[in-house]
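Q: Give me the 3D complex with S-adenosyl-L-homocysteine.
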Amino acid sequence: MKLVAVVIALVLATAGCRTAASPSPRPDGSPVPVTPPTVTPAATGTAPTPASSETPSFPIPSSVDRDFADSDEMRGQRDQLVDSYIAPRVTDARVIAAMRAVPRHSFVPTQWLGAAYSDHPLPIGHGQTISQPSLVAMMTEVLRLDEGDRVLEIGTGSGYQAAILGELTPEVYSVEIIPELAGIARVVLDRLGYGDVRIDRRDGYFGWEEHAPYDAIIVTAAPDHLPPPLVAQLDPDGGRMVIPIGPVGDVQVLWLVTRQGDEVAMERVLDVRFVPLTREEG
Ligand code: SAH
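A: Here is the predicted complex, encoded as structure tokens.
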């Protein structure tokens, strides 16, 4: 992936300001879900007892509209997605292996099963989407995760990105602002063996301070400026954050933010289109 480097040195004290760079958006953002779903019959998953021991800060549904069965057909579609859309864009073998391993179809409502292995975002309810697989792979690669790194995700959504992270390191923390989505993601992740992924319902603008510092932070909803609390929770010794920043409903720029002490460098990665980072009311 070609990184267009725009390195901006900022001191932490000024990290609350809007990013000084004013990128010119391209009109062609990442594709919106347009593929009509091919609906295939699917069993409705029944929720098991959560594998994680913590008391959740959100309701755990007793059943979820997800299909947990994996099959040769699904694995074949997954491999085809990886071969066609991931492998050409991503070189990190561990990321590619994770994309082959995680059953994306189990993270989407069953009406979208037939489209689960297209390279598109898909609706997951509450006006939110599961991200486009190639973008998930590229954002993950940019973080250069080592096994044992502690990573924070802002915007659990379906839980898919969290599962990909969970394939790479056992220390995954993810926060989601919509309680119902957090609950469904918890059930899905537990059911698929990602019980170690920690989820909390909270406004991710403020990160999850309790477990900071993080070696890496991945933000999957777009704020209009770089949230200072996230910068503060990055490991001062080379912490990396990948974050889309830009106006609501418009093309945003995906930035790689790296921290060395009080210095924050920002590299422009590519233009993207994410749902907005919403804020807690009141
Ligand atoms: N990573 C997700 C993508 C989800 S879309 C996946 O793999 O499916 C972005 C998610 O961010 C949505 O679920 C949305 O509800 C959530 N979100 C938006 N603003 C947030 C905030 N302030 N804090 C935490 N989550 C937020």
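A quick observation: Residues 128-131, 154-155, 157-158, 160-161, 175-178, 181, 203-205, 220-221, 275, 277-279 surround S-adenosyl-L-homocysteine (CB under 6 Å).
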